[in-house]
Specification:
The chain is of the alpha/beta class. The protein has 14 helices and nine strands.
Amino acid sequence: MALAPEKHAKPAHILDTVINRIGHIVLGKEHQVRLALACLLARGHLLIEDLPGVGKTTLAHVLAKVLGLQFKRIQFTADLLPADILGVSIYQAEGKNFVFHPGPLFTQLVLADEINRATPKTQSALLEAMEERQVTAEGVTHKLPKPFFVIATQNPHHLIGTFPLPESQLDRFLMRIEMGYPDRAAERALLKGRDRRELVESLQPVIGPDTLASLQPVAACVHVAEPLLDYIQNLLDATRRAGAFAEGLSPRAGLSLLAAARSWAMLAGRDMVLPEDVQAVAPSVIGHRLRSPAGDRAVSITRLLESVPIP
């Protein structure tokens, strides 16, 4: 049962409580936790790419628990079929009709674990769900629960048995983040502490889906001044003309960057977006949407942010 937030508590206070609770389980990763929460506040989907064993799945579990969301996990494998995710229509002899049986995708937060181990055909089964928040089967459209989020984990492409996500699939993710190795203090706490799975099971919700739904419009209404919009447009233009990237960012990428920056500002307790909010979320929002001929996207994005003047 979700804990009722204070009646007149400010959004930043509520979200700080959420972040602190997550931080008891996911140690030393406050920046990644804030990015993940900003992604959900912006109604986006999250891709976590990193080596096995660094806490990708744990973060998804903890987010679902603390936010009070219905949660299901789908383990992606090479033999997984689209129907295994979406559901299937089964003929009922009694009624002489087909009845749709929803798949595990019909939940509020779904973990697509190791998404790039599935074939492109199965990966593409998520496209309509992530974009339209609905599933069409046998010509009938079925709405997904509200809210609906996909958190996908992905192993690095150099690992055996992976299929790269197509660009159309990558673009459905508002953010892509990496967990990274823990620092020495956090790793020592992990070694000395209880099993993370036990701690996750004992977690109680801090808020519920209704509270989360009430916070999302607040994030969407965080003020953005005209010079800040100029800054975002200048960043988009720089990716299109500089030659550092194979293709420039799309208008949808600009909308994603703006939505993420608004959520980041709200997490900081502000009612307006600053340039540093854009810079904080930019690598996670645009990194998976850009291809650098030089091969090092992180360096190219750093140079991009340094090259565009701050208003």
